[in-house]
Write a structure and sequence with these properties.
Distance between the termini: 20 Å
Oligomer: single chain
Order of helices and strands: EEEHEEEEHEHEEEHHHEHEH
Bound molecules: zinc ion
Number of domains: 2
Number of strands: 13
Strand content: 15-25%
Helix content: 25-40%
């Protein structure tokens, strides 16, 4: 009988589920539409039914369920006021999942889940101090100190996306002006492209493809984005002296354009003592289902 963990990545659009063994291999994975579950109760009921079917059809013992979700709190086990989810308010998903399935469950936010994944299954296995920056709809971050993901007093540590670039800058969804994620995110890149004179509504992937073909405006868009990121990463390095910073998420697929510029800008902004010592790298989990692996790593980390 093989011992496995279930890793679940809950997003505003899809719920990705994977059965993950101790080595970090995804034995089976599937995807549900988040909008199919108007209430979290419907989701946990379906999950309970599915785990029962999986157990009767496979020679597995499920040792735990790890869940990564937006604005999820590791300490309270609840999703708290997720802006892009059909489930409103405070959802005690950890307790609900455990009650429905009888399987021990852990919950964290999506960026921290990827940090757990990097720590247990990725390049972080060899490191004790690093950060994972997730670049997508927003900018999330997980900070690993002394081999542990940093949670802070209230389970809220690592909101790097809401540190400020410009006090008179772009309006952020959080209410503040000029947060990092208003520049370095899907929407941020689209806006920068338009502000530089782009007439079309292109997404970051299209802009990246054009940049690769030599389009000046697209190259400039990524250069500007990477400079802003590199500048703020210098702040992050000054705060906790990591060994590396990993980039994860859809936008991070443009890392051949982002990293050289961000690395140069970060080194330029760093105190001399830090220069050349901290690498910005694509996450080891970038081409894999990193969020699912990370959620499963919440369970496997206890055995490492
Ligand atoms: Zn903000």
């Amino acid at each position: 009988m093989e011992r496995v963990a279930i890793g679940i990545d809950i997003g505003g659009t899809n719920i990705e589920i994977g059965i993950v063994n101790k080595q970090g291999t995804i034995l089976l994975s599937f995807r549900w539409k988040t909008s199919d579950f108007l209430q979290a109760e419907e989701f946990v009921a379906r999950l309970a039914q599915t785990t029962e079917n999986l157990l009767s059809n496979n020679d597995w013992r499920i040792i735990g369920i790890g869940i990564g979700a937006p604005t999820a709190n590791y300490y309270t086990g609840a999703i708290e006021y997720a802006p892009n989810m059909p489930w409103k308010g405070i959802i005690p998903l950890q307790r609900m999942t455990y009650q429905a399935t009888g399987i021990p469950t852990k919950l964290t936010n999506d960026a921290n889940a990827v940090a757990h994944g990097e720590l247990v299954f990725g390049a972080g296995r060899e490191m004790k101090h690093f950060s994972v920056i997730t670049l997508g709809t927003g900018l999330g971050s997980g900070i690993v100190v002394d081999g542990h993901v940093l949670y802070g007093q209230h389970g809220l540590a690592g909101e790097f996306g809401h540190t400020q670039v410009d006090p008179n800058g772009r309006q952020c969804s959080c209410g503040r002006l000029g947060c990092l994620e208003t520049y370095v995110s899907i929407r941020g890149i689209e806006l920068t492209y338009q502000k530089l004179g782009g007439k079309e509504n292109l997404n970051p992937r299209d802009i990246y493809l054009r940049a690769q073909q030599g389009d000046e405006l697209s190259i400039e868009t990524y250069k500007k984005t990477a400079q802003i990121l590199g500048n703020k990463l210098a702040d992050l390095v000054h705060l906790f002296d990591p060994e590396a910073i990993f980039l994860y998420g859809g936008v991070a697929n443009a890392h051949p354009l982002i990293i050289p510029v961000a690395q140069a800008e970060m080194d330029r902004q760093l105190l001399k003592a830090f220069r050349g010592k901290v690498q910005i790298r694509p996450s080891d989990l970038l081409d894999k289902k990193g969020a699912v692996l990370g959620a499963a790593a919440l369970i496997w980390q206890d055995e490492k």
